[in-house]
Structure formats: C-alpha cells, structure tokens
Amino acid sequence: MFRDPVRNGKPGRPRLLVWADVHIVQVVKQRVGRRLVSITRRVAYGSLERAEALMQATQVELGRINTAYIERLNATLRTWMPSLVRRTRTPSGARAQLEAALFWTGCVYNFCHVHATLAGTPAMAADLTDHVWSIEELIRYRCQRE
Question: Quick one: three-class SS letters along the chain?
C-alpha cells in the first residue's frame, strides 16, 4: 500500500518504491493462556526515532506506540463501510470507489460526527471549525484555491 510503481518502459511488473517517510512499528503481545505476559515494540520498517516523532506530532496525549488508534480506526471504518467487513455481500469493487468511500467517511467522521471524549468533532478539536457540520453543509462546501 505505501509504495509507488517505478516504470522503466520494460515489459512486466514495475519495481515498487516505498514512500520516503514510511515508518512501521510492530507491537507483539505475548500471552500465557489469557494472561498478557509482555509487550514488545519493534521497527518493521524505517526509523523508530522518526516514528516516535511523528506520533508525538499527531497525538493529543503523548503516549507510547500501541495498536489502540489503528484498531479504533478499523472498527469505525468497518462500522460505516459495509465493503470493509470481513464477510459481506457488498465487496469493495474498484479501487477508485473504495478511495472515494474512504474519503467521504473520513470527512463525515471528522466534521459531522460528535465524539463524547472530545465534546465535539475531531475538526473542532483541531481548531479547523467552530461548529458541528451537517451533511448538507459538508456536501455544499467549496474549497478555496490558493
């Protein structure tokens, strides 16, 4: 997912080049029965220092690398987008349709959906807006070009 094809004009599958600022950290939980024994965090790709810097720049509460944020995002997307559920009658179809659905879901989630822990929307918490948007307001909004 985090790489682009490098086409060289030759036939066959192009080489894939990983994006410059991708840093993947793996959280490994070791259990004995149902009891959690230890948690190990290791770099699967990139730099641990850069991954921690990105985490500190993007999280409201500074913490440690964990899976809570991505698990919450996955649960939200599966709730709102039937095509992402593991077994479904509505497969995701074309990539462009999936990307459009992800974009729309992200906009509604950040501008129109009130989060109890934030007492507003994520866009309000980030000072991007001062009110909860309606779906109609989101649809009719026109970006101003710079």
Answer: CCEEEECCCCCCCCEEEECCCCCEEEEEEEEECCEEEEEEEEEEECCHHHHHHHHHHHCCCCCCCCCHHHHHHHHHHHHHCHHHCCCCCCCCCCHHHHHHHHHHHHHHHHHCCCECCCCECHHHHCCCCCCCCCHHHHHHCCCCCC
